[in-house]
Amino acid sequence: MAPVLRMIQHSTLSLTDLVDKVYSSLVLDLFEGLELHAKKDGSEAACKILKVISSDGTKSYEVGWIGKGNEVIDTSVVKADDLIRKKAPTSRKALKFFIRESTSETSPWTLHADLAKKYGIPTEVPVDIMNGEGLNKGRKRFVNEEDASKNLKKGQLVEPRVKYPIDDLLVKPAADDPILSNRPPPSKDFRVPVDSVGDLLMVWNFCLSFGRLLCLSPFSLSDLENAICTKESNLVLVVEIHSALLHLLIKDESEYFTILQNKKKILKVTFVKWSEYLCNFLEMISKEEFSGKVSTIRRGSYGLLETRLKLKILRELVEEAITTSSVREKIAEQIDQQGALVAARKEDARKNRGEKLNVEGVAENGRNHTDNTLDGDKPPKGQRSGEEREDLNILSSSKMFLRRHPETEMEQQSVLPSPLGKDRFYNKYWFFMCEGRLFVESENSREWGYYSTKQELDALLGSFNIKGIRERALKRQLDKLYDKISNALESRLKDVQQKMLLQGVEVRRSSRLHAQQKEDMSFLQYVNKWKQK
């Protein structure tokens, strides 16, 4: 950051030339903090330049060798010839965006004051630029042309008017800002460890997205959470999930299949022997954190494992399943179908525009040719209603996960997960229609929370500052999906209240009623209706 910001500060180059200058420097120059590779013991290893050493007109470099955890494990001094760049640190496009977002003036380029202060970049404008030398005509941000010459003579630049949106962390409060509501704190009453929520969601969504392929009927997130937290070793839901994933690996006839053949195992996971097949998988991936637990699982005590470890094992199974040919083919097929639906929608829109132009009708033999176009509010065959097309647009842009009860064809084909957006602190927001909660993931993915009521959603929307790039985009996406999200939150809230009433628990009317399903035992009734006989 610092070397790049120094090159930007008070530069009088055009944007294109400045991008070229910075890009060339990043590709050719060697500076402290640069991560690259270097020759070490006859091979190449990742490293970071810690210090540039100048002596007698030559330069050498103290580098820190980077280990698997991205930490420096050792240091050495190497020559420039021993340093190897695999690729450019960034792209010209990214640099262009960065320069625009990090500056408040373009002639000369002037960094935002907070950013300059953070990285120790001088803010005083050089004398030659203060006197107007080297400035590009037509790019000065002055109040008006009449004041421009006066200001140049005085060597004073007028404070520029910031063009929003800018990076959220650079937004400063202003007198004319609208009043923002306090952001409600998300609930964190998960049963699983908070840093394992990501694994829980990943496993649950994969099973729902590829349920037919896995021959595994849907189950709720709460059922999975409650089942994985119990100490029982042979719960039907837990066994069915593991068995379905292991069967998929067997059908793929890859490494796991070969290992079972060599062990002369029956290529079918049964309720009685499922833990043995899981042990074979853990021995195959050979990870140290699991090696000490194989004997526990083999003794039939899977339920005694820590919840965090159970979810890590399931994540490993899912990550292995994603590499199978059947899953890859399914994803490719669904992406192709999604593209075909988008193309069909565009064609429908084109036809509709043509029909609108001819809506007055063209008389032929005394008949109006609009007789067969519309039947009341029902769209013509092969076309969708406006509401359905809006659904398709929304779902296509947000790339939601496959839902348990898809409403449209596009929902059925959506398999690519992505968050709705990020707030100013880079927290990610996720929404799953069949779950009815808005999840929040911290930047480092170690903290999770959720919002479960319409009141919380409204307060959250009112807290976003749209002067920032991230919160503007996030608010736009949440506004677009507001009805769907709020309806899902309300529906889930009613379901929770109903369950609590059935369990004899008093339900207090509150704007913040959380999903108190810690005693919910519905996961015990799970039956895999899609299981192959």
Name some characteristics of this structure:
533 residues, alpha+beta, SH3 type barrels, 5-stranded antiparallel β-sheet, 4-stranded antiparallel β-sheet, 21 helices, 12% strand, DDT domain-containing protein, nucleus
Report a brief summary of the structure.
With 533 residues, the chain is of the alpha+beta class.
Describe this structure in words.
Among the domains are: 1-119, Roll (SH3 type barrels), CATH 2.30.30; 194-323; 417-510, no CATH class. Helix content is 43%, strand content 12%. The protein has 21 helices and 13 strands. It has helices at residues 2-8, 15-28, 92-102, 113-118, 127-130, 145-154, 197-209, 211-214, 221-229, 236-251, 255-262, 274-285, 288-291, 294-298, 307-322, 325-357, 386-398, 409-413, 454-461, 469-480, 482-502, and strands spanning 35-40, 43-55, 58-66, 72-79, 83-84, 103-106, 109-111, 363-364, 367-368, 421-422, 428-432, 437-441, 448-451. The strands form four sheets. It has a five-stranded antiparallel beta sheet with strand order 4-3-2-1-5, with no helix packed on it. The model is unreliable at 134-154, 359-394, 396-416 and 509-518 (pLDDT under 50).
